[in-house]
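Many introductory courses stop at the sequence. We go one step further.
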Amino acid sequence: MDFSLTQSQQEIARLAGQLLDEGKAGPWKELARAGLLALSLPPELGGDGLGVLEAAVVLAEVGRRAAPVPALATLMTGVLPVVRWGDGALRRALLPAAAAGELILTAGLREPSDPMPLVPAVTVAQGPGPERTVSGVKVGVPYCAQAGRVLLPVSFASGGAGVVIVDPAADGARVTPTPSAAGGPECTLRLDRVPVEHVLGGADCLADLYQLAVAGACSLADGAVSAALALTREHVASRRQFGRPLAAFQAVAQQVADVYIASRTLHLATMSACWRLDAGSDAAGELSVAGYWCAQEAPRSMRTCHHLHGGTGMDVTYPLHRFSALVSDLVRFLGGAEYQLERHACSLN
């Protein structure tokens, strides 16, 4: 199949890249002013009615610059799940503010020792009245301290699993900052009978949220690996040893070719998965390939790029460091290569 970007997707990529390259102090607000955060919103809320592919294009451009913006958290694990599963009232309450860059959405997917639990340990209980509360621990929640709402995979005390929405500033919620490789804000979120504001959906909603999260992480990694490859190509073409450019040496050319193959495979697997998510088709197989390839091959490609840069690759002020740090965080977000491979094996049974 042809996964080349359409003309409109190319324009989205061009505009996102231009705004991120300008280096303004508030790139998230600039993306919002340009309408790039509203791409997935329905037209009645001022959006373009587009979907996963267009969000993935924006995320790839963010990854290409390792820009410190909450694109994965808000667009893929916030806006799109609400668009796909929320009712009219919930959409009106959250989406316009998110599209304007005024409300950050995120999702607390990971639990201790389980990046994407099928049976979450975080549990929703029924109160004495109609109120429901949620208790448990989520780790590595991106932008949790800045978020206005958090989507949570949960188990219901009455049975089954699903997704609920809570306010991380509500009584009973405790947010503790934790470190990340790229320096992006992450937190541990502890919940002690925190009120549930909305029940977004059940098990199907939970599966969709996890799939969107994997697609978003792979889109970011796609951009980061592509940018690292371009940086490395330029370096080996201009750096000379023994009177010749490094790129003229066969061993160097072969290593660059390996990174190119990894980059293109990740791109095609990610685009195929996003296309199937947009079309409402089963994307589990494609996402398993993309997730595993991202967790296994993206870090290996980054190590090769650092190696080919020599001493320059060890400089944390050099742009390559930002890409490799972002990839490290994304691999942790996905649970690592073995975890992705195990999930793929389980999906086949």
